[in-house]
Amino acid sequence: IMRCCTLLACIVVLIAAVLIGIDSQKEKFYVFDQDVLQEVALKAINSTSNTQDMFASISNQLAEMYPGHVETEQEWVFNNAGGAMGAMWVLHSSITEYVIIFGTTIGTEGHTGRFYADDYFTILEGEQWAYSEGSTEKEVFLPGDQHHLPRGHAKHYKMPERCFALEYARGIIPLMLPFGVADTFFSTLDFVSLYRTFAIYARHCIREILLGKL
């Protein structure tokens, strides 16, 4: 038992050391920019009112701007996190960044999570509400607005009805995964979606590492 505990402790320390090392150098691995992503979203919003055409516009624009780093084939998977439920299409994911289209056709709400990363949520369709501890008024984000959740912060958010957004996170993405999968173990037991989520993330990460990007 002592040997197992020692081995586990060594593994945890090693992983922590690696993640701290990556965090200190993460800026050089970033490919995407939140302002550019908002411009891409605005162009798609202004070009069409059709949801699928909007998604296609975003993926095609990003694939042209960031060749080799964007998945243009739609592959949707359910995501339950912080009590909220929606579906996501992973356009890009790596150790330091992810870009997804996330949304729901019927509304949802929950906890944003408190991450070791910055999150940028650009509304494409519908609206998102949010508030922080101590707030007495809700924040309202409409199509084209970008909701920035700084590293270490958390909010209660709600998509009152149909809503889709282009989401971009930058930081140590593996540290976000426990929040993203906890509801599977303690609520939904949807291990099919869990498997698909990890399979997609692993596929993207391997591709990015082969391209020299963390």
UniProtKB/TrEMBL annotation:
Keywords: Endoplasmic reticulum, Membrane, Signal, Transmembrane, Transmembrane helix. InterPro entries: ERG2_sigma1_rcpt-like. Residues 1-17 form the signal peptide. GO terms for cellular component: endoplasmic reticulum membrane. Coiled coil: none annotated. It is found in: Endoplasmic reticulum membrane. Its main location: endoplasmic reticulum. Pfam families: ERG2_Sigma1R. Belongs to the ERG2 family. This is C-8 sterol isomerase. It comes from Vannella robusta.
